[in-house]
Protein backbone atom coordinates (compact mmCIF):
# COMPACT_ATOMS: atom_id res chain seq x y z
CA UNK A 1 0.00 0.00 0.00
CA UNK A 2 1.29 3.46 -0.89
CA UNK A 3 2.36 5.46 2.18
CA UNK A 4 0.04 8.37 1.30
CA UNK A 5 -3.12 6.29 0.94
CA UNK A 6 -4.38 6.79 4.49
CA UNK A 7 -3.64 10.52 4.37
CA UNK A 8 -6.20 11.24 1.66
CA UNK A 9 -9.43 12.69 3.07
CA UNK A 10 -12.71 12.89 1.20
CA UNK A 11 -13.55 16.28 2.69
CA UNK A 12 -10.43 17.78 1.07
CA UNK A 13 -11.42 16.36 -2.32
CA UNK A 14 -14.97 17.69 -1.99
CA UNK A 15 -13.62 21.08 -0.93
CA UNK A 16 -11.38 21.20 -3.99
CA UNK A 17 -14.33 20.39 -6.28
CA UNK A 18 -16.51 23.04 -4.61
CA UNK A 19 -13.76 25.65 -4.95
CA UNK A 20 -13.71 25.35 -8.74
CA UNK A 21 -16.76 27.63 -8.88
CA UNK A 22 -15.36 30.36 -6.66
CA UNK A 23 -14.61 33.90 -7.74
CA UNK A 24 -11.26 35.41 -6.65
CA UNK A 25 -11.07 38.06 -3.98
CA UNK A 26 -10.09 41.44 -5.40
CA UNK A 27 -7.51 43.91 -4.16
CA UNK A 28 -8.23 47.60 -4.77
CA UNK A 29 -4.83 48.90 -3.65
CA UNK A 30 -2.41 50.39 -6.18
CA UNK A 31 1.14 49.06 -6.51
CA UNK A 32 2.74 52.25 -7.79
CA UNK A 33 6.44 52.11 -8.68
CA UNK A 34 6.84 48.59 -7.26
CA UNK A 35 8.70 46.04 -9.37
CA UNK A 36 6.94 42.86 -10.46
CA UNK A 37 8.79 40.06 -12.29
CA UNK A 38 6.60 37.76 -14.39
CA UNK A 39 7.81 34.76 -16.38
CA UNK A 40 5.96 33.70 -19.52
CA UNK A 41 4.18 37.04 -19.89
CA UNK A 42 3.62 37.25 -23.65
CA UNK A 43 0.40 35.21 -23.66
CA UNK A 44 -2.27 33.63 -21.50
CA UNK A 45 -2.24 34.06 -17.74
CA UNK A 46 1.09 35.88 -17.76
CA UNK A 47 -0.12 38.44 -20.31
CA UNK A 48 -3.35 39.19 -18.44
CA UNK A 49 -1.46 39.40 -15.16
CA UNK A 50 1.08 41.82 -16.63
CA UNK A 51 -1.75 44.09 -17.78
CA UNK A 52 -3.44 43.88 -14.38
CA UNK A 53 -0.32 44.93 -12.47
CA UNK A 54 0.47 47.66 -15.00
CA UNK A 55 -3.08 49.02 -14.70
CA UNK A 56 -2.40 49.40 -10.98
CA UNK A 57 0.79 51.38 -11.67
CA UNK A 58 3.36 48.64 -11.04
CA UNK A 59 6.57 48.49 -13.09
CA UNK A 60 7.22 45.24 -14.94
CA UNK A 61 10.18 43.05 -15.75
CA UNK A 62 9.09 40.09 -17.84
CA UNK A 63 11.07 36.97 -18.70
CA UNK A 64 10.11 35.25 -21.95
CA UNK A 65 11.52 33.10 -24.76
CA UNK A 66 10.61 35.33 -27.71
CA UNK A 67 12.23 38.75 -28.08
CA UNK A 68 9.82 40.06 -30.72
CA UNK A 69 6.79 39.22 -28.56
CA UNK A 70 8.52 40.63 -25.48
CA UNK A 71 9.19 43.94 -27.18
CA UNK A 72 5.61 44.11 -28.45
CA UNK A 73 4.31 43.46 -24.93
CA UNK A 74 6.44 46.18 -23.35
CA UNK A 75 5.56 48.69 -26.07
CA UNK A 76 1.88 48.00 -25.40
CA UNK A 77 2.25 48.23 -21.60
CA UNK A 78 4.20 51.49 -21.77
CA UNK A 79 1.81 53.08 -24.27
CA UNK A 80 -1.41 52.15 -22.49
CA UNK A 81 -0.44 52.28 -18.82
CA UNK A 82 2.53 54.69 -18.77
CA UNK A 83 4.64 52.51 -16.48
CA UNK A 84 8.11 51.04 -16.89
CA UNK A 85 8.33 47.72 -18.68
CA UNK A 86 11.50 45.81 -19.51
CA UNK A 87 12.21 42.23 -20.47
CA UNK A 88 14.85 39.51 -20.28
CA UNK A 89 15.10 36.60 -22.70
CA UNK A 90 15.46 33.00 -21.53
CA UNK A 91 14.40 29.57 -22.74
CA UNK A 92 13.51 27.67 -19.58
CA UNK A 93 14.38 24.35 -21.20
CA UNK A 94 18.04 25.46 -21.25
CA UNK A 95 19.82 25.64 -17.91
CA UNK A 96 22.43 28.14 -19.09
CA UNK A 97 19.62 30.54 -20.11
CA UNK A 98 17.93 30.16 -16.73
CA UNK A 99 21.11 30.74 -14.76
CA UNK A 100 22.01 33.79 -16.82
CA UNK A 101 18.64 35.41 -16.30
CA UNK A 102 18.69 34.57 -12.58
CA UNK A 103 22.08 36.29 -12.25
CA UNK A 104 20.64 39.35 -13.99
CA UNK A 105 17.86 39.43 -11.42
CA UNK A 106 20.44 39.08 -8.66
CA UNK A 107 22.33 42.09 -9.98
CA UNK A 108 19.32 44.40 -10.14
CA UNK A 109 19.89 47.55 -8.09
CA UNK A 110 16.28 47.61 -6.96
CA UNK A 111 14.01 45.38 -4.91
CA UNK A 112 11.86 42.68 -6.49
CA UNK A 113 8.53 43.20 -4.76
CA UNK A 114 6.75 40.27 -6.43
CA UNK A 115 8.01 37.43 -8.62
CA UNK A 116 5.42 35.30 -10.40
CA UNK A 117 6.59 31.97 -11.83
CA UNK A 118 4.15 31.41 -14.66
CA UNK A 119 6.17 30.02 -17.60
CA UNK A 120 5.56 26.38 -18.40
CA UNK A 121 4.82 23.71 -20.99
CA UNK A 122 2.56 20.67 -21.33
CA UNK A 123 3.76 17.79 -23.52
CA UNK A 124 1.79 14.70 -24.47
CA UNK A 125 5.00 12.99 -25.62
CA UNK A 126 8.28 12.79 -23.75
CA UNK A 127 10.91 15.25 -24.90
CA UNK A 128 14.49 15.42 -23.61
CA UNK A 129 16.29 18.76 -23.35
CA UNK A 130 19.86 19.51 -24.36
CA UNK A 131 20.64 19.19 -20.62
CA UNK A 132 19.44 15.56 -20.83
CA UNK A 133 16.37 16.08 -18.65
CA UNK A 134 12.66 15.55 -19.26
CA UNK A 135 11.41 18.86 -20.64
CA UNK A 136 8.30 19.44 -18.51
CA UNK A 137 10.17 18.77 -15.25
CA UNK A 138 13.06 21.01 -16.27
CA UNK A 139 10.95 23.85 -17.70
CA UNK A 140 8.13 23.94 -15.16
CA UNK A 141 10.00 23.00 -12.01
CA UNK A 142 13.79 23.04 -12.11
CA UNK A 143 13.99 26.43 -13.81
CA UNK A 144 11.88 27.99 -11.04
CA UNK A 145 14.02 26.31 -8.39
CA UNK A 146 17.22 27.67 -9.95
CA UNK A 147 15.91 31.23 -10.14
CA UNK A 148 14.67 31.18 -6.54
CA UNK A 149 17.88 29.56 -5.32
CA UNK A 150 20.13 32.14 -6.96
CA UNK A 151 18.14 35.20 -5.81
CA UNK A 152 17.14 33.94 -2.35
CA UNK A 153 19.73 36.05 -0.51
CA UNK A 154 18.75 39.17 -2.45
CA UNK A 155 15.10 38.67 -1.54
CA UNK A 156 15.99 38.01 2.10
CA UNK A 157 17.90 41.29 2.31
CA UNK A 158 14.86 43.29 1.16
CA UNK A 159 12.21 44.76 3.45
CA UNK A 160 9.72 42.33 1.88
CA UNK A 161 9.01 40.22 -1.20
CA UNK A 162 6.40 37.75 -2.38
CA UNK A 163 7.10 34.69 -4.54
CA UNK A 164 4.09 33.15 -6.28
CA UNK A 165 3.99 29.93 -8.29
CA UNK A 166 1.24 29.53 -10.87
CA UNK A 167 0.69 25.93 -9.84
CA UNK A 168 -2.24 23.62 -10.55
CA UNK A 169 -4.71 21.14 -9.12
CA UNK A 170 -2.92 18.85 -11.58
CA UNK A 171 -0.32 18.23 -8.86
CA UNK A 172 -2.91 15.68 -7.69
CA UNK A 173 -2.16 13.54 -10.76
CA UNK A 174 1.10 12.62 -8.98
CA UNK A 175 -1.11 10.94 -6.39
CA UNK A 176 1.58 8.63 -5.00
CA UNK A 177 4.37 11.20 -4.92
CA UNK A 178 7.58 11.55 -6.90
CA UNK A 179 9.65 8.58 -7.96
CA UNK A 180 13.07 10.00 -7.14
CA UNK A 181 14.78 7.18 -9.00
CA UNK A 182 12.93 7.97 -12.23
CA UNK A 183 12.08 11.68 -12.35
CA UNK A 184 12.65 11.79 -16.13
CA UNK A 185 10.42 8.81 -17.02
CA UNK A 186 13.24 6.59 -18.22
CA UNK A 187 11.65 3.47 -16.68
CA UNK A 188 8.00 4.28 -16.03
CA UNK A 189 5.57 4.97 -18.86
CA UNK A 190 5.32 8.63 -19.80
CA UNK A 191 2.04 10.51 -19.86
CA UNK A 192 1.37 14.24 -20.22
CA UNK A 193 -0.79 14.36 -17.11
CA UNK A 194 1.72 12.53 -14.95
CA UNK A 195 4.74 14.56 -16.08
CA UNK A 196 2.81 17.79 -15.53
CA UNK A 197 1.66 16.53 -12.14
CA UNK A 198 5.24 15.66 -11.22
CA UNK A 199 6.46 19.17 -12.04
CA UNK A 200 3.65 20.88 -10.14
CA UNK A 201 4.10 18.59 -7.14
CA UNK A 202 7.83 19.36 -7.19
CA UNK A 203 7.04 23.09 -7.06
CA UNK A 204 4.91 22.56 -3.97
CA UNK A 205 7.57 20.47 -2.26
CA UNK A 206 10.21 23.12 -2.99
CA UNK A 207 8.05 25.68 -1.20
CA UNK A 208 8.54 23.76 2.05
CA UNK A 209 12.32 24.15 1.94
CA UNK A 210 12.37 27.70 0.57
CA UNK A 211 9.96 28.76 3.28
CA UNK A 212 12.29 27.21 5.85
CA UNK A 213 15.12 29.32 4.42
CA UNK A 214 13.02 32.51 4.54
CA UNK A 215 12.00 32.15 8.21
CA UNK A 216 12.76 35.40 10.02
CA UNK A 217 12.45 37.50 6.87
CA UNK A 218 9.47 39.20 5.24
CA UNK A 219 9.66 36.97 2.18
CA UNK A 220 6.61 34.80 1.53
CA UNK A 221 6.31 31.98 -0.97
CA UNK A 222 2.97 30.56 -2.07
CA UNK A 223 1.36 28.64 -4.93
CA UNK A 224 -1.99 29.06 -6.61
CA UNK A 225 -4.28 27.14 -8.92
CA UNK A 226 -5.34 29.67 -11.56
CA UNK A 227 -8.73 28.11 -12.26
CA UNK A 228 -9.77 26.34 -15.44
CA UNK A 229 -9.09 29.24 -17.79
CA UNK A 230 -8.67 29.35 -21.55
CA UNK A 231 -5.00 29.51 -22.52
CA UNK A 232 -2.91 28.38 -25.50
CA UNK A 233 -1.09 25.82 -23.35
CA UNK A 234 -0.38 22.56 -25.12
CA UNK A 235 -0.61 23.95 -28.65
CA UNK A 236 2.77 22.37 -29.36
CA UNK A 237 1.12 18.94 -29.19
CA UNK A 238 -0.64 16.89 -31.87
CA UNK A 239 -4.02 17.44 -33.52
CA UNK A 240 -5.84 14.92 -31.30
CA UNK A 241 -4.80 16.77 -28.14
CA UNK A 242 -5.71 20.14 -29.67
CA UNK A 243 -9.20 18.86 -30.52
CA UNK A 244 -9.61 17.37 -27.04
CA UNK A 245 -8.56 20.66 -25.45
CA UNK A 246 -10.83 22.72 -27.69
CA UNK A 247 -14.00 20.68 -27.20
CA UNK A 248 -13.59 19.26 -23.70
CA UNK A 249 -11.19 21.43 -21.66
CA UNK A 250 -11.80 24.87 -23.16
CA UNK A 251 -15.56 24.37 -23.51
CA UNK A 252 -15.98 24.95 -19.77
CA UNK A 253 -12.99 27.27 -19.32
CA UNK A 254 -13.40 30.68 -17.72
CA UNK A 255 -11.95 34.07 -18.63
CA UNK A 256 -8.28 34.70 -17.92
CA UNK A 257 -9.06 37.75 -15.82
CA UNK A 258 -9.94 35.58 -12.81
CA UNK A 259 -6.35 34.32 -12.73
CA UNK A 260 -4.95 37.84 -13.10
CA UNK A 261 -7.19 39.15 -10.31
CA UNK A 262 -6.09 36.31 -8.03
CA UNK A 263 -2.39 36.85 -8.75
CA UNK A 264 -2.76 40.56 -8.07
CA UNK A 265 -4.54 39.89 -4.79
CA UNK A 266 -1.89 37.38 -3.68
CA UNK A 267 0.92 39.74 -4.66
CA UNK A 268 -0.45 42.97 -3.18
CA UNK A 269 -3.24 42.52 -0.64
CA UNK A 270 -2.38 43.16 3.00
CA UNK A 271 -4.85 40.41 3.93
CA UNK A 272 -2.33 37.75 2.84
CA UNK A 273 0.97 39.53 3.53
CA UNK A 274 1.82 37.06 6.33
CA UNK A 275 0.54 33.94 4.57
CA UNK A 276 3.33 31.68 3.38
CA UNK A 277 3.86 28.08 2.26
CA UNK A 278 0.20 27.90 1.29
CA UNK A 279 -1.66 26.48 -1.72
CA UNK A 280 -4.47 28.69 -2.98
CA UNK A 281 -7.28 27.84 -5.34
CA UNK A 282 -7.42 31.33 -6.81
CA UNK A 283 -7.51 33.24 -3.50
CA UNK A 284 -8.91 30.51 -1.23
CA UNK A 285 -6.48 28.48 0.88
CA UNK A 286 -6.83 24.79 0.12
CA UNK A 287 -5.23 21.59 1.42
CA UNK A 288 -3.04 20.14 -1.36
CA UNK A 289 -2.61 16.41 -1.95
CA UNK A 290 -0.72 14.57 0.81
CA UNK A 291 2.51 14.09 -1.23
CA UNK A 292 2.84 17.90 -1.39
CA UNK A 293 3.09 18.06 2.41
CA UNK A 294 5.83 15.46 2.82
CA UNK A 295 8.77 17.17 4.52
CA UNK A 296 11.11 14.20 4.01
CA UNK A 297 10.35 14.16 0.28
CA UNK A 298 10.95 17.92 0.20
CA UNK A 299 14.43 17.42 1.67
CA UNK A 300 15.29 14.73 -0.88
CA UNK A 301 14.03 16.86 -3.77
CA UNK A 302 15.99 19.88 -2.48
CA UNK A 303 19.27 17.96 -2.62
CA UNK A 304 18.48 16.47 -6.05
CA UNK A 305 17.56 19.92 -7.36
CA UNK A 306 20.82 21.41 -6.09
CA UNK A 307 22.74 18.66 -7.88
CA UNK A 308 20.80 19.13 -11.12
CA UNK A 309 21.34 22.88 -10.89
CA UNK A 310 25.05 22.29 -10.14
CA UNK A 311 24.99 24.13 -6.81
CA UNK A 312 27.41 23.19 -4.08
Main beta-sheet strand count, sense and barrel state: 8 strands, mixed
Please report the total strand number as a whole number.
8
Question: What structural class should be given to the helix and strand makeup?
Answer: alpha/beta
Inertia-based shape: globular
- Name the poorly predicted regions: 233-252
| Beta content | 5-15%
Radius of gyration: 18 Å
Mean pLDDT: 92
Number of helices: 9
Question: What is the H/E string?
Answer: HEHEHEHEHEHEHHEEH
Taking the alpha carbons of the first and last residues, their distance comes to 36 Å
Strand order of the main beta sheet, please?
3-2-1-4-5-6-7-8
Give the helix proportion (percent range). 40-55%
Name the descriptors.
312 residues; 8 strands; 42% helix; eight-stranded mixed beta sheet; single chain; alpha/beta; 12% strand; 9 helices
Short structural description:
42% of the residues lie in helices and 12% in strands.
